[in-house]
Amino acid sequence: MHSELEQEIAALLGSALEARHLIQAAVECGKMNVVRSWAQERARGVPLAYLTGKKGFWKNEFLVEPGILIPRPETEHVLEVALARGRQVLNFADLGCGSGCLGLSLLKEIKTATLWTVDSSALACAVTQKNAKALGLEARVVQSEVVAWRPPVQFELIVANPPYVALGDMNVQDSVHAFEPHAALYSGADGLDAIRAWSAWASRHLALGGVFVCEIGAGQMSAAREIMLGLQLEKIEIDKDLAGHERVISAERVR
Asked: Residue 5: what pLDDT?
């Protein structure tokens, strides 16, 4: 049906598969009239999620827009670990919430809990509120730097997808560096600044027996483990993603 258009877009993007994905996304959005303009944007590296305004994560679609980190499949492992380790959760926090995909997806699974999300970005807080409303959920959204936030409760569970890319890392895709928010990607010379700060914050605001679940970058497991141990967070577990990379570290406050 769209064979000629697909060939045209494939020639522009240099990929027939990419052309099919773009056309299918336009069909699903009911926006076939924007296919050629989307293709031009994709040709210069703009992520498809920013063009469609949405991205699938876990069991739902989430609104995204430029300035918001695009949800990744790898982050679903944080959710899996949180569901496996979290117990008797009354209050839980999502640090650096971005689109809210992680915290809101968890709230769909543990409906009786209260979700607190925090992000320094006003845009992220607004998008999280929109996604909560779209999903029929309520979240307590706080605009603040994580380390400056003084929550009124202790948490049985804290989840985080912090920035963990080292400044100057040459392995970052050009389109990611060019279009996604640097504050949500980069974290100091070794990529560990936020992991250090957020782990310390979590150690102070976890209830006894509470669990901190944090996404980490490939190769950061040993350093992240030392950070947790230095904060007296114990029962440390490491979980791998589908590519075999150590992707999630979790620890419990036991004293």
From this structure: 87
